[in-house]
Amino acid sequence: MEKGIWGFTILIVCSLASRTEGLGMDQNRQILGFQGNAGDALDDDPVGRLKVFVYELPSKYNVDLVKRDPRCLTHMFAAEIFMHRFLLSSPVRTLDSEEADWFYVPVYPTCDLTKDGLPLPFRSPRMMRSAIQLIASEWPHWNKTEGADHFFVVPHDFGACFHYQEETAVERGILPLLRRATLVQTFGQKNHVCLKEGSIVIPPYASPQRMHAHLLPPDIPRSIFIYFRGLLHDGMNDPEGCYYARGARASLWLNFKNNPIFDISTEHPSTYYEDMQRSIFCLCPLGWAPWSPRLVEAVVFGCIPVVIADDIVLPFADTIPWTDIAVFVAEKDIVRLDTILTSMPTEIILRKQRLLANPLIKLAVSFPQPSRPGDAFHQILNGLARKLPHGSSVYLQPGQKVLNWTAGSVEDTYPWEK
Ligand SMILES: *[C@@H]1O[C@H](CO)[C@@H](O)[C@H](O)[C@H]1NC(C)=O
Ligand SMILES: *[C@@H]1O[C@H](CO)[C@@H](O)[C@H](O)[C@H]1NC(C)=O
């Protein structure tokens, strides 16, 4: 399974006919939960609103993995590493576990790459289990809540379902030991077993240094109307073209490859980031997963994201005014994409571009090093702070057990060794 720069190695059920009906923009607005100026929370300051205890785990759960394979620092799942580094020196960190509101378990489940650099999550459940066993035996906090005041960063395709194929991910469900914890994850789709209530949906990681290195002057004319570069058909994993992107990308190619207002191709030019800055609309269709780093890149480069992924839950949707800055097109409406975009009134396009230029929005989807107030790290903390104070259901009676340590797949209970 090739996992190229564009791709997601996830299999999705071929059910093109049964997708939800198309949504108008107003319906999208309701579903995503925005009311007008929700963007005000973008510059909330989490400092003083929560205290986080960072467990000190043996380095085999985190830094050793990065030493062994530094490719983890640049792939789209790198938030698990940078969040750890950020928290170690964050003012919300407390060294006194007794006064903590939240407990953070620094494991890098996506940094266990194959020789070819593929972040396959097959061993992640064992690693998680091993780390949880360790903290539950050496500290008193896990047993008091069985993880309900703990959080984990699980950025892989389907989060803590830990599988790249959707069917299998759904069948597995969230790793049983993580079912009381708060999950900080990239995967976001409504009514999906791999996104539980209370999870925090974050942007995928796109290297801020790399994007910055390609910045053009802000007044560069946008001469490309619709831009897309990426996989249109995953011939290796989906030769018949029935599963990949639920057919959405194949349909894009089929319908618009010869349309002069569309600049779409599978070729990855060295001017990719410059081209986004010269474009008005950047297509962000689903791939193997509903999300891709394109969404972040489009926002950073001020290109209006055209989100084609039914039921997607976007990162920090309670804070970032996605409906104001992006365009949402239902998968079934791809055939009308040219009409939808050409008939959009100029003042709406200009308004979206103006809002996209807001540096607070760009910052909120970025993981800069060093961190800056308002960036994605701070938005994660804001999300955790908004969940406080913990309700009484978080705390168990002494001796009470809710989670079943042996539930789930048998392979997940095998020892994890490095
Ligand atoms: C937490 O509970 C487990 C049994 O579920 C036990 O083995 C462990 O020792 C307990 N941890 C502490 C710190 O008491
Ligand atoms: C825990 O899960 C295992 C495996 O699914 C099952 O056999 C066992 O009965 C469960 N234990 C409890 C207490 O539910």
Topology:
Elements: H1 25-32, E1 52-54, H2 63-68, H3 79-88, E2 102-104, H4 124-138, H5 141-145, E3 150-153, H6 166-172, E4 182-185, E5 200-201, H7 208-213, E6 224-229, H8 248-256, E7 262-265, H9 272-277, E8 279-285, H10 294-300, E9 304-308, H11 322-325, E10 327-328, H12 337-342, H13 346-356, H14 359-364, H15 376-386
The chain binds 2-acetamido-2-deoxy-beta-D-glucopyranose (NAG) (2 copies).
One 2-acetamido-2-deoxy-beta-D-glucopyranose (NAG) binds next to loops.
- What is the SS-derived class? alpha/beta
Helix content: 25-40%
H/E topology pattern? HEHHEHHEHEEHEHEHEHEHEHHHH
Terminal CA distance:
24 Å
Number of H/I helices: 15
Query: How much β-strand is present in the residues?
Result: 5-15%
Q: Major sheet, described briefly?
A: 5 strands, parallel
Radius of gyration: 21 Å
- Mean pLDDT value: 89
Principal-axes geometry comes out as globular
Which strand order spans the largest sheet, edge to edge or round the barrel?
Answer: 1-2-3-4-5
Total strand segments: 10
Q: What assembly state would you assign to the polypeptide chains in this entry?
A: single chain
Could you name the ranges where pLDDT drops below 50 across 5 or more consecutive residues?
A: 1-38
Ligand kinds: 2-acetamido-2-deoxy-beta-D-glucopyranose
Number of domains: 2
Family: Belongs to the glycosyltransferase 47 family.
Subcellular location: Golgi apparatus membrane
Domain Exostosin GT47: 49-344
GO biological process, one term: glucuronoxylan biosynthetic process
